[in-house]
Amino acid sequence: MSKLKIKLSLYINYFVIGLMLNSVGIVILQVIIHYHVSESGASVLEAFKDLSIAVFSFLLASYIPRFGYKKSMLAALLIVTTASVGMRLFDSFLMSKILFAATGFSFGLIKVSAYSTVGLVTENSDQHASVMSVLEGIFQVGVLSGYWIFGFFIGDSDPTSKSWLNTYWVLAGLCIFAFINLFTTKLDESEVQKAEEKYSVVHEFLEMFALIRFPLVLIFILSAFMYVLIEQSIQTWLPTFNKNILQMPNAISVQIVSIFAGAIAFGRIASGYFIKKFSWMKVLSSCIVLAMLLVIFVLPITSGIKAGSINSWTEVPPAGFILPFIGMFLGPIYPALNSSILSVLPKHRQSAMSGLIVIFSALGGTTGSLLTGYIFGHFSGQTAFYFSLLPMGIMLTILFIYRGVRNKFRFEEF
After folding, report:
1. % of the chain at pLDDT higher than 90
2. Domain total for the chain?
3. Measured distance CA(178)–CA(12) in Å, rounded
4. Is 59 helix (H, G, I), strand (E, B) or coil?
5. CATH number at residue 103
6. pLDDT, tens digit, 9 for 90 and up, residues 301-324
7. What does pTM read for this prediction?
8. Residue-averaged pLDDT of the chain
9. What is the span of the domain harbouring residue 106?
10. How many C-alpha atoms does 63 have within 13 Å on its Cβ side?
């Protein structure tokens, strides 16, 4: 099998699913406008996305190695293709819920399969960390592209226009391309299949949660939960923050969030260099502190902007460009943490660990979005974004605990 072609296929799959999964913030803004749904009501789209990921991972992650990583990813791409066509043809708030439930389910299939496949095409922890960083970076490139693709179809001249739904024809086409590319790629999964034959599905299911008995794993999944809570609370609600607080037109409020996705991608790629020069703990703790400082200094200048005062990119206030750069500081955290666990596990246990990562990441994303949506709707957008300082502080504390436990842990115990 060609490891290069397999990696390329994983990157394409992650690009497509990243674009679709993180369009939830854009769609929340659109359903508020077109279906007259409240902020807290629209926030349930995040729950449909993330809870479907969590439920899937809970029930089926341990079965994926038996079914096959390639088959699982092909099934996921077929599901999101169908959901994209359905969203375009059956325009409704209900269909948007179905879309994100299907996307969340498919993301679970792709993420568990992709994370496990990385172990098949890398030979040491350095290669593993490198591919993981690129994979998550490509995911953010997909997210970034989504803001511009959706922004192209969103019309500011007619707020009631349904032209934004034409985006789903483009998404369906991208999914079909990813499907064909993966279908023609050979992936040797025999090593994993042989290991899986020794145990029953029930045994593998129990083993996934048995991993939590290790303090290192428990602290790790708490870290993953807090990180995704922070990232998704900002990413999901930034388009609405731009629209309602910074008074940007619809298209600009969506497109400018691409800075956030681009900043995350840049942060993840650049972190590979800094982690080689400094300890991972120094890099990640510095990133969290800088993210907190950015929130503290930028949010005060987002107040008092008059409605209708912004009609073009040249009129966007500095805060609109600066705030999304928080992604540059948040970006390095997630792939570094995931690689720190997966790279030391036996290949047949990586699927189980990936399942735990997906479950608790999904729960973190749902929690962050619902809390932020509630605060946004009952208090203000500034208050909702100030709230992010609390989980950042908790995350920083957990990182120090995680480092201490990891340094003392003997990985052969796995």
Report:
1. 30
2. 1
3. 6
4. helix
5. 1.20.1250.20
6. 988 888 777 888 888 999 999 999
7. 0.74
8. 84
9. 3-413
10. 11
pLDDT digit string, tens, across residues 76-134: 999 999 999 999 999 889 999 999 999 999 998 998 888 888 878 877 766 777 787 78
Sign (positive or negative) of CA dihedral 326, 331, 336, 339:
positive
**Which residues are within 8 A (CB) of 356 and not within 5 positions of it... i.e. 6 or more apart?**
57, 208, 209, 211, 212, 217, 221
Q: Which amino acid type is present at position 159? A: P
- Which tokens in the block code for residue 379? 């208090």
Q: Give the angle 73-75-77 at the CA atoms, nearest 5°.
A: 70
Report which residue type is found at 13: N
From CA 155, how far away is CA 172, in angstroms rounded? 21
Structure tokens at 355: 């399942």
Q: Are 110 and 73 in contact (CB under 8 A)?
A: yes
Buried b (16+ CB within 10 A) or exposed e, 50-62: bbbbbbbbbebbb
pLDDT digit string (tens) for 6-17?
Answer: 889 999 999 999
